[in-house]
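[Meeting: bench + compute handoff]

Bench side (C.D.) handed over the final construct sequence. Compute side (W.E.) agreed to return the predicted structure before the next meeting so the bench team could plan truncations. Sequence as handed over:
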Amino acid sequence: MKIKTAIVLAAGLGRKVWPYGEFRQKCTLPVANTPIVRRVVENLLEVGCERIVVVVGHYAQQVRGALADIPNVVFVTQHPVDGTASAVLSALAHVEDESFLVVYGDIVTTPDTFRTVIREFRTHTVEAAALVQRLDNEDASDWLCGSIATQETEAKSVTRLTGIEGHPRRGSHRLCGVYAFSPTAVPYLLRNPGIVTRVPVGGMPPPESEIAQSMQLMIDDDREVLAVQTEGFLVDVDKPWHVLEANNRLVGSLAAQVTEDRIAAGAKISDAAEINGHVVLGKNSVIGPRVVIDGTLIAGANNTITNGAILHGNIFVGDQCRISDYCDVDSTAIGNRCIIGHGAEMSGVLFDKVYLYHYCEMSGVFGCATDIGAATVCGTLRFDDGDTPMRVEGRYEVPAYGANATYMGDYCRTGVNAILMPGRRIGSYSVVGPGVILYEDVPSKTLIMAKQELVSKPWGPERYGW
């Protein structure tokens, strides 16, 4: 029941994920230290896809670099980057006259998700299938949504997609960016009008070809489109807080698979360490004295975790990191060559080579090669106990996950005693100077310094009665 060919879409501009999409292709953002698009491709190969066609555009070389060593991958450049339906059409020259998958290159899930879509598509012999996810506490107006209906018969139960709507005011399920098509569905991609016409009254869709609209054309022609509901986790990395959510959910999934300690050659655990959970330790990594681990630690090669470091929750660590000196790390994905030092507190995501040398309290996502000054603090609790609204492409949203975290781009730094209010975003190549209390987002390539007023008065022994 395999599908041999999958088209992976990795061409988009990724503007909504700022501060992470401005100088990166969003699909190459790391989740548990692996680019998202690489995880997608590896998952597809695992479920039996033999040919992967990757559509690139914005920062194409980053995608090629992330997949360069994987066989059976073909790259196609989309000109111009004008929507997902046209992206699929640009790749069809590499697809034989057979069914194929279409997968957005910025989703984070497990291989079982793709197995489920393939199984259901093959079992029901339909022309197309779409993966949908229940919205739960998310706002329907943030997503492309689909309505579904289940038909029960004595022989089987079939859930169909009955319509789509772009960013509706209400909805129960969203489209996930995973589709299966038979060759007979291709004409509906060609017929795509280049704009989503199914929107709420007063809605204003951008002029771009969207696969969802092709699905609607099929439904309008009474073609059967299967709706496959997600069973495990799936995160569509569309906004900055989705980077945090995707890492946390994937690390949690990886940790749940660890049922026993696995210690590689040359790795060591001190007898003076306190381990309350399971440890996966890569080659030549060391857990030293007075370390406390409460939970599951998955660490790569050549790491040093020592001298009273406290790790609790699910922790994923790359290679060549130093975590030491009574720091406190909670449920974190840590990149390669990172340092978490004396008294530093961290929860969230560190990309590669982030330094938390001295006492600081960090919560959120921190970009590559970022240097955090001593005593930098990220506020996480507002006085009204509420969530921070964030402005995304001219529209305010209240994230359902990680609303009060800090989101800092690549190549940033802070000065000593910087205070970052809940939910602040800092663009790449930017600096938050010493003593700054940051209430607003910082654009990329910007330095923010505090300006103080000093009072000078005469002083001396005479003030003390001499």
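W.E. noted at the follow-up: The CA atoms of residues 373 and 416 lie 5 Å apart. C.D. will use this when planning the next construct.
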